[in-house]
């Protein structure tokens, strides 16, 4: 390990003069597009990763931060496209949710039992873990993508990273302002969104926002399938801000989304046909309906200490039906409906950051319950030969804190810790080909994670940091398949070593970030398929240490009318010795995860890559503003994102379709600003690359093809 750390550190030093941080300034509340005039120097970026507003260039964390206008200019409207603007991130969308991975850690099997390694927050509240992810980005202030374990502040599960999505707040005494936007595109796409700020009084304001979309299917489907294969979505958000005094702030946000995605067609992994011309003979259906409310209360005491409460409540229902063999020949179908309800509460006590000491204390509680209604979870030939119903409640309690001490005026020592206690239960009834099976099982896990960081502000332009942090992802319960109740899987622990350098150059025109990391995992959680029913995955623990290490760099620059940003990530993952049965090949004999023995069916996975962990990622964006007489501005912009090849399973069997080829996505737009009106011609995936967006259950789900259109935005 020490040799690898030294090598990574040397490589980081060699790259330091050329690469590093991608970030943007706060979004304008009017919803103005990226065609707005640029400043001649870069503005300060503020992040909230440590529960207080801090400068990104002075925060010991690797992060990509984008404003709402920057997201739109880069062609990012949903979570899928985040992988093309941030290093070391992959998003694999297979229909009823996504597998979001950062630095190779996240989610490789989509079910309620498997925890995610990347937590997404919406306005300060952790969202549904994996489901309800197609929510569009509209009226967004910023998106923060944090890379690496976030154990102290984000807590359990965030062993890969975290994503913070923040919508625009109401502005008291900000006048009536907002925007309305509409667009048309190929595939008969029509969309509209908008927002309005309402200053009710000197102490109260509200903000309303909406988004709607209608589009035909991206696929040409043949066969006796049923269901509407188009897309219709609608979302609405209401925000209310009350500030009766300088010390008290109460912010309430509530939103609702109806996302009729009408199924995610797919065909077999090794099919040779045009992947957008497929056959099916099942009902194709995908519908998400969910609501969320967030209440944040901040009170500042006379000494500057802030007491903060963040309460969240979310409730949703997801429905999904698909052709499981991906053809019109067989009749192997899958269907499920899941109701999920979450309520959470977080309390923070935050000191000022003006003295030699600064600190934060916090407590967190979350209850999450999944319900599988009778008769709505089914699979098999003939239909309904595997039926599942029941509940899966989960509970989490945590206490955390961090203290910072300025050893000198420029050197700060930070020490943080978090204690987590979590439990999960399965109360499940399964009927398999007439054989009943009942699972009443509970598992509980606890952990103490910590972080020690040393930060050095060399001068006003350079910031160095190094830290050691530990993280924790709890174990869980596997889905009952076959005979008997499967064994639980254990918690996963990670130790992260990281060094970084953030710098400003050329009088504020250039900003960089470079970091190197080494992660060592104990009881690494891996997913393999059940030999009898491979469509179901189950979790095991790798008994030997797994390593993931790499380098990341980002850069952002503004030179007059020209601006650009870029990011690059290199990563290597190595599984510790671990034996597993590939469910797609005939198995015989015993196969112990620790000892094997190795055979054609009991495969030694030592040294294999982690799933969804590409060796190389790269992104680049650039634009130039042409100013005309009268003040009109023409802004062409191009974006390129590259994600190298990756593996969808640990077995890395290319002949069986385990390899996902590289993704190379070009987006471009040209925006014309005339006063408050912006007209934009845009295109995404301009080369029309046919790339696999995800592999699941022996099926390939394609990423979006080339799309283009015209967008009009009016700010007021």
UniProtKB/TrEMBL annotation:
Localisation: Cell outer membrane
Keyword 4Fe-4S: no
Record-annotated TonB-dependent receptor plug domain positions: 56-162
Any Gene Ontology biological process: iron ion transport
One Pfam family, short name: TonB_dep_Rec_b-barrel
Keywords: Cell outer membrane, Ion transport, Iron, Iron transport, Membrane, Receptor, Signal, TonB box, Transmembrane, Transmembrane beta strand, Transport
The TonB-dependent receptor-like beta-barrel domain, residue ranges: 256-686
GO cellular component: cell outer membrane
Superkingdom assignment: Bacteria
Primary site of residence: membrane
Membrane topology: Multi-pass membrane protein
InterPro entries assigned to the protein according to its UniProt record, in alphabetical order: Beta-barrel_TonB, Beta-barrel_TonB_sf, Plug_dom, TonB-dep_rcpt-like
Family under the similarity heading: Belongs to the TonB-dependent receptor family.
Descriptive protein name: Iron complex outermembrane receptor protein
Species whose genome carries this gene: Povalibacter uvarum
Lineage, broadest ranks: Bacteria, Pseudomonadati, Pseudomonadota, Gammaproteobacteria, Steroidobacterales
